[in-house]
Amino acid sequence: MKDAHSHSVAEANSRSYNQLARERYIQGAPHIGHRKLAELYDRLLSRVFSCAAEHTTSPSVLDLGAGEGSVTRKALAFGARVTAVDVAQARLDQLRQECSKHSAMLETIQSDAMPALESLRSQGKRFDVVMTVAFLHHVPDYLGLLRQAIGILGTHGQILTYEDPLRYDSLPSWSRLVSRVGYLAWRLGQGDILGGATRYLKRRRGIYGREDADNVEYHVVRNGVDQDAIQRLFTEMGLRSELTRYFSTQSPFWQRLGERVGAVNAFSVRGWKP
Q: Per the database entry, which stretches of residues form a coiled coil (predicted)?
């Protein structure tokens, strides 16, 4: 039953992201649209590749949930060999076209992440870096996925997650309020207000349907992603880790306000083999 549910969520993501225009995706992606979030991501990524450069001149990178390709493009610019995995073939086709000058350094795999990890592991593949950016919240069993990802890290391997929502019940009440109001202010300009309001009220009562809207942003519409459980998993599997909390929302006004008052609602975790 668990596998069947994960499969239905993967199908929902495939339908949504094959149809969603890149420009519209970027409009709803704070980590791409807001300068300070992009700068934070660049600092985290530079740290990862600086550490990788101590052991190899051309690190192997696995980009899970490659999406619109920002991770892959940055990794290729660092001189990495990249395997990009995404459930949406349209995204991968666009990525290969945009990165044609790096074609010898880029492999794409159209697949749900978990089967891709199992296949790569069975082939004996190992990676210096595994990246999941704005991705874990799409995966019902994200801890299982991370366990599999850690299993294919090389000797000095690292894993970096970015742009997932902190577990909501771990947030200070005022941070949660700023986050919720900021999202609603942005959502009012996105259309389908009645449908969105109906789904919101149902979710507040713990009712989730089978429609794509309740499955694509799986943990966003539930209780967020458990950052503490991720760090416990990393420790259990012999990794050291560091957690970075920050604020992220779609609205430029509310993003600036959230940053100014020190609100937090999102996180990144870097794990590495000592």
A: 85-112
